[in-house]
Design brief:
The chain is of the alpha+beta class and about 230 residues long. It contains one helix and twelve strands. A hairpin with a 6-residue loop joins strand 9 and strand 10.
Length: about 230
């Protein structure tokens, strides 16, 4: 009888150990599913980020606020303006884009700024794949409501018309968002490409000028950023 009781107790202990083993094995797939969900969420986040960076520019609204960019520093990838001294046609198209001065006539001097497709005195071209870029640093994060820039839309001699202007905003100078396509002046004219948008916090304003025809130069002479 004692022997039978011993055998039954042994069987009971074995059964309990087996059950615990099964529970332990079941817990592993749960942990695996958690890891998979993290991977899925990460993939979705990356997809949303990629979609945001490639989003189509929005249509502009009326500009509100006042100019907050006068005197601000800015960067032009590829070179700040166009200068040639020893060419058949010397040129200096290096207008200050945030000095508050906008010209209303086409003159071949430093009243204008050129995005050039041909290398200048420093051996660089600042119009890359048909696009010239200016990045304005407002100095601090501010509420931004719109941008306008004075441009030439004609196609004269070696000057190409401005075909499109798109504005992006950023808080850190690395991640740009909320693209807006500005309204362009009539062809063969000098005027403001402009557009407003709902207030957005930003420190850096990226303005992209796309060429709309043939020519070495793409002309602008002033950028105004508006805010509250």
């Amino acid at each position: 009888m004692k022997k039978l009781s011993f055998i039954l107790a042994f069987i009971l202990v074995f059964a309990l150990l087996a059950a615990c083993g099964e529970k332990s094995e079941v817990s592993n797939p749960d942990e695996s599913r958690v890891d998979e969900s993290v991977v899925v969420e990460s993939s979705v986040a990356e997809s949303i980020s990629a979609e945001s960076s490639n989003s189509e520019p929005a249509e502009p609204i009326a500009i509100s606020g006042t100019v907050i960019s006068k005197g601000c520093k800015y960067e032009v990838p590829g070179g700040k303006g166009y200068v040639v001294n020893d060419d058949k046609w010397p040129a200096n198209y290096t207008a200050d884009l945030t000095d508050g001065i906008a010209v209303s006539e086409l003159v071949y001097n430093s009243s204008w700024f050129s995005f050039n497709s041909e290398p200048d005195i420093d051996g660089e071209a600042n119009r890359i794949d048909g696009v010239g870029t200016v990045i304005i640093d407002l100095g601090a994060i501010k509420s931004v409501t719109g941008v306008r820039t004075n441009v030439y839309t004609g196609n004269l001699s070696s000057i190409a018309p401005v075909g499109k202007v798109v504005v992006w905003v950023s808080e850190d100078g690395e991640s740009y968002k909320n693209p807006v396509s500005l309204n362009i002046p009539e062809p063969d004219s000098i005027g403001w490409a402009e557009g407003g948008f709902e207030p957005v916090n930003a420190r850096y304003i990226k303005v992209e000028y796309t060429v709309g025809g043939e020519g070495h130069h793409l002309f602008t002479n002033e950028i105004e950023v508006y805010g509250n």
